[in-house]
Amino acid sequence: MKNIILAITGASGVCYARRLFDLLQPKVRLHVTASERGAELLKLELDMTLSDFQADNVVVYKNNRMNASIASGSFPIDAMVIVPASMGTIGRIANGISGTLIERAADVMLKERRKLIVVPRETPFNTVHLKNLLALDQAGGIILPACPGFYNRPASMDELVDFVVARILNQLGMEQDLLPPYEP
Ligand SMILES: Cc1cc2nc3c(=O)[nH]c(=O)nc-3n(C[C@H](O)[C@H](O)[C@H](O)COP(=O)(O)O)c2cc1C
Fold it and tell me: Does this model's pTM top 0.85?
């Protein structure tokens, strides 16, 4: 079973994390954590807390638990998804600042050359955001913005969410039937 870290930070769009969790939870071992602001957004947007993610195959971590197994490169994590990813967290990871479990785990993913997927949600971007995103890309991260497409004619918010979640699942190498490959 794959080990995947799901980290929720303080950007709008925690619905993406929740949907991804529901689809991954039966199939992989999930390691779930949230920043303080991520937890606030969970409450604000979904009326959820981090402990609502407790389930089979899931380990939930506080973001200040720096001695957690996932803070070490010796723990066999296959991929990490930061969704939604705040520009604050992205900036800290892009600059090697590892003051929280999320930042440290992301740093480990980069140093071990493992898959790190970050899903920013900010608009417009300023120059600092763009430089940090480029730095993360150059360090091996995958920048997957929360930008749903419209060519599939989404009829609901759920379909817009699924567009982005499907792209994350594709990057994780997980089968998905939310969004078939585009055919003209
Ligand atoms: C209601 C609310 C919505 C926010 N939305 C975003 C957002 O969409 N994108 C973003 O980069 N920051 C957003 N922020 C700002 C971040 O939460 C803030 O920079 C925070 O320090 C990030 O902390 P973290 O990276 O530890 O989660 C939002 C803040 C609040 C209170």
Answer: yes
pLDDT in tens, 46-85: 999 999 999 999 999 999 999 999 999 999 999 999 999 9
Residue at 178 is within a domain: no
Atom of ligand 1 nearest to the CA of 88: 25
Q: Which atom of ligand 1 is nearest to the CA of 90?
A: 25
Identify whether the C-beta of residue 5 lies closer than 8 Å to the C-beta of residue 79. yes
Per the structure, how many domains does the chain have? 1
The CATH number covering residue 168 comes to 3.40.50.1950
Question: 75-101 pLDDT, tens per residue?
Answer: 999 999 999 999 999 999 999 999 999
